[in-house]
Amino acid sequence: MSEENRAALKKALEKRLYELYRKGDVQHLNWEEKQNTDNEIRHWEDIQRRFNRNNLNQTDNDELNELTPLISFLSSIS
Question: Domain boundaries in the chain?
Answer without folding.
Answer: 3-77
